[in-house]
Design brief:
Blueprint (H helix, E strand, L loop, with lengths): L17 E5 L10 H14 L3 E4 L5 H11 L4 E3 L16 E2 L5 H8 L4 E4 L4 H16 L5 E5 L3 H11 L4 H4 L2 E4 L2 H10 L13
Helix pairs in contact: 1-2
């Protein structure tokens, strides 16, 4: 039997912002680094914003669960070719990709990106967003969250061709409240001067 809708039916509202949260798939409770992911998911949902993650386990699942339990919308970005992995149950919407570039393109549609503790995958996704901020006015706000990132960023600045102008495209925050305040203060997105910087 078909279900019809009338003009009187409420139209679902789209969350004001989408915040991508990236982080390790290897970290699970009771690892203390999961607490930050949990706080982040809940804080994003409390603002009425959607959470976007890779859609799988680890910090992605911890963030997704906290956001869903706080009444938020969760968007996952699974890969069709990763048949050994199953998206976590907290996703409300799945945006499937056939290729990694397609998945990254979905990720870059977020209004902001928060990088939690992670490994090579997290670092690569953050670097893509960071690079996009140099040239793309609508690139997501980039926030590195937690104590692990400051020494990494200092090392990158010391050993690569990175200066204060590049570092200004990313923000380091100590806690989720600070990260949420930063995102709120910088929306709507303001166009930035663009140019090749590599």
């Amino acid at each position: 039997m078909a279900i019809s809708s009338s003009l009187a039916d409420p139209v679902p509202t789209r969350p004001a912002l989408t915040v991508a949260v990236i982080g390790s798939a290897r970290l699970t409770p009771p690892d203390p680094r999961c607490v930050l992911a949990e706080q982040t998911g809940a804080a994003i949902a409390a603002r009425g914003w959607a959470v976007m993650t890779g859609g799988y386990g680890g910090l992605m699942e911890v963030t997704s669960r906290a956001a869903a339990e706080a009444g938020g919308t969760v968007i996952g970005l699974p890969m069709r070719g990763w048949t050994a992995l199953t998206p976590n149950r907290w996703n409300h919407e799945l945006r499937w990709s056939d290729t990694y570039p397609e998945r990254l393109a979905h990720l870059l549609t977020a209004d902001a990106m928060i990088a939690l503790d992670g490994g090579i995958g997290t670092l690569s996704e953050a670097a893509i967003a960071w690079s996009a901020r140099q040239t793309e006015p609508a690139a997501p706000e980039l926030i590195f969250l937690g104590t692990g990132w400051p020494p990494v960023l200092r090392s990158l600045a010391e050993h690569l061709v990175i200066d204060a102008r590049d570092l200004a495209y990313a923000t380091v925050c100590a806690d989720p409240d600070q990260a949420i305040a930063r995102i709120a203060a910088n929306q709507p997105r303001r166009p930035r001067a663009a140019g090749p910087r590599g």
